[in-house]
Amino acid sequence: MKVCVLGLGEVGLPTALYMADRRNDVWGYDISEKAVWKGRDSGINATTHWNEIPKADIYVVCVSTLLTENDPDITAIFDVCEKIAQKADPSSLVSIESTVIPGTCRKIFESIFKNSIPLIHVPHRYWADDSKRHGVKQNRVLGAVDSKSLEKGLKFYRDFLEIPLHLAPSIEVAEMSKIAENAYRYVQIAFAEELSMICEQLDLGFKDVRQACNTKWNIEIPEARTGIQGHCLPKDIRYLSSLSENNSLMKSAILADNKYQQWLKSKKHPAIPAAKPEIIKKH
After folding, report:
1. pTM for this entry
2. What was the pLDDT predicted at 278?
3. Which of 38, 73, 173, 239 could bridge to 66 as Cys pair (CB 3.0-4.6 Å)?
């Protein structure tokens, strides 16, 4: 099959290479020349010019989604799907692996693909720090806009790529699952960070307290490291919290992480204590 992967970043390039290893004819598209050259160096036909991409059987969307003033910014998804609509037809399959908010895929299916191009959502779970266990091939969630899309998606991901799948009852559930799982992880880490600050205040070892807690069968407190960094977790918790006013826990977690990062900075660069006023003794 001819596959086009749109977005050759941290997720897109490993995805393209995985698919190429399974004897697909893979093409990569990215607006970044650096990403394209990296793709070419890895053996992928890659270009920054959409008109050079041949018509494909499968289009896999791996472009980054962003935050603009703490609000979801998924314009890149709509932009590349507009390009896909120029080449794809009802015999094609479009898979969006990028993180989106619920309702995005169906809106694209209806407004851009005019209900005619099969569309699925298979959110990535790629973790670059352990790509062997948590790479392209791991348990994934798949949702589809209709039965035809589901059939094509299963044939490609489950049967051809041999990726284990959990089938979501709707594409909206698949969309929600990605931001929910990352927001949940964010809250877990923020709790550990706050606990770490409390332990130091009480002159207790956080590591000792954490190890003691984690002996209980249903407790697994993560480590508290350098604050919640990276692209996905800080973005996805804000994606989820933007959907409802029922977000007090998530907002508190964001605040806790901000406080923790400031606390770490204060430990590295402690403030100079104010000089004590001299006591004037009366004679």
Report:
1. 0.92
2. 45
3. 73
